[in-house]
Amino acid sequence: MKKLAIAVALCGSLVCSPVHAKTFVGVLWPMFGPLPAIGLVELVAELKTMPDVEVETYVHQAWPSLVDDIDRQPPGTHTVVVGYSLGANSSVFVANNAKYVDLIIALQPSMLSWNPPLTGKVGRMIEIYNPNPWMTFGGMGSKKLVGENIEYITNNDSHPGAQFNSEFRNLVKTEIAKFTAEDRLETAQAAIPAPIEPAQPDLPAAPKSAAEPPRQQSDVGPPSQIAQSELPKLPQPHAPQRLAQEPPAQEQSNLADHRQLAQSQQPNLPEPAAPKQSARRRPQHEPIQWVAFLDSLSNSVDSGDLSVQRELTVADLMDYAKRTFGVSHPTDNFDARRALPAGGDVIAASFSTDGSL
Predict the structure, then answer these.
(1) How far is CA 261 from CA 153, 256, 264, 268, 271, in A?
(2) Is there a contact between 24 and 80 (Cβ–Cβ < 8 Å)?
(3) 19 pLDDT band (50/70/90 cuts)?
(4) Do the strands 151-154 and 101-107 form a parallel or antiparallel pair, or are they unpaired?
(5) Which residue has the higher pLDDT, 201 or 72?
(6) Which domains does the chain have, with CATH numbers?
(7) Can you give the chain as a three-state secondary structure string?
(8) For residues 216 and 214, what is the distance between their CA atoms, to the nearest angstrom?
(9) For residue 211, with 0-12 CB atoms within 10 Å meaning exposed, 13-18 middle and 19 or more buried, which class applies?
(10) Pick from 164, 172, 167: which is nearest to 53 by CA?
(11) Averaging pLDDT over each range in 242-246, 283-287, 318-322, which range is the top one?
(12) What is the pLDDT of residue 153?
């Protein structure tokens, strides 16, 4: 029952509320009203068939009424003014006195009327005129309006025939259709609801361990600081070199203990005797017999200074041989000179104090 009452109330409000057009079009007739403007009457009939378009007509002297109707339009309504001949001249007064006009299309304004420059707030203004006054009965459709925001279109139509020009009609209908298309696009965009983001379900909180004490807010730091505090401290790059060069004191003491233990376990071997140095030098090529001979000679002969040269005879040699080796020759008449090598009778020898030859 409540739903039915709400539906009836909505329908009644829609029926009773006034329908406002999205685009308001005001048409200004030329001199003598619609009688000399049959082509403009046909255009008005076509505009009324367009959706969301409201059309009102005015004589050119009634332009203040058009200004009032434009200012009464609700916000968001587009306003368009179409004038022909003297109605085109009156469109400038409408623009200068209305709050704002979106579009004005002036068809062949007359040179026989006075017009001020365009100073009002107008979105666009399009003027269609014939610059040759002889083709418009002395300038009835050759007036060029003055203003900064005016677009000029020239034609070769006579003044009575300009209202039947298809280019003029298509231009009016196309510009009005643009406003209607804009309104429909805005309405469609407003009707599309904004996408609703799905609500994410609340995940259950992880259960806290009973053994873990609750953390205080002051102890919790940034994740980067926590990660750095948990990482072990690695040695510096130069630490291995310092360890290799200077071992710790404990390691030095351990090395000394190992060395003493190794020395105590080694067997006590006798040290090799140093070779005795001979009392005198002798060359390696000296015969052993000559060495013995000279030693015995130095011991038996005491002639004072041995460094003095003296002659050694064969009898001395024979006496030395008897005393040393106990050898005697069978004959005493032994010719020692024959036993000696050729060319030598006497051997001269020189002895030093140490007994060397």
Answers:
(1) 122, 9, 5, 14, 21
(2) yes
(3) very low
(4) unpaired
(5) 72
(6) 19-186 (3.40.50.1820), 288-349 (no CATH)
(7) CHHHHHHHHHHHHHHHCCCCCCEEEEEECCCCCCCCCHHHHHHHHHHHCCCCEEEEEECHHHHHHHHHHHHHCCCCCEEEEEEECHHHHHHHHHHHHCCCEEEEEEECCCCCCCCCCCCCCEEEEEEEECCCHHHHCCCCCCCCCCCCCCEEEECCCCCCCHHHCHHHHHHHHHHHHHHHHHHHHHHHHHHCCCCCCCCCCCCCCCCCCCCCCCCCCCCCCCHHHHHHHHCCCCCCCCHHHHHHHCCCHHHHHHHHHHHHHHHHHCCCCCCCCCCCCCCCCCCCCCCHHHHHHHHHHHHHCCCCCCCCCEEECHHHHHHHHHHHHCCCCCCCCCCHHHHCCCCCCCEEECCCCCCCC
(8) 7
(9) exposed
(10) 172
(11) 318-322
(12) 96
pLDDT digits 0-9 by tens, 298-336: 555 555 554 545 667 778 788 878 887 765 555 454 444
Q: Would you state the structure tokens that stand for residue 256, as one six-digit string?
A: 């000394």
Two tokens, residue 145? 């309006």
Q: Which of 94-98, 164-168, 261-265 has the lowest mean pLDDT?
A: 261-265
Structure tokens at 52: 């969301």
Region of poorest pLDDT, from 32-36, 43-47, 180-184, 296-300: 296-300
CB atoms within 10 A of CB 84: 31
Summarised one tens digit per residue, pLDDT across range 71-130 is 999 999 999 999 999 999 999 999 999 999 999 999 999 999 889 999 999 999 999 999
Picking from 54, 113, 60, 61, the residue whose alpha carbon sits closest to that of residue 80 is 54
Looking at this protein, which amino acid is placed at residue 199?
A
CA 347, CA 357: separation in Å to the nearest integer?
Answer: 12
Rounded Cα–Cα distance for residues 350 and 357 (Å): 6
- Structure tokens belonging to residue 131: 């610059």
Both tokens of residue 275?
């070779």
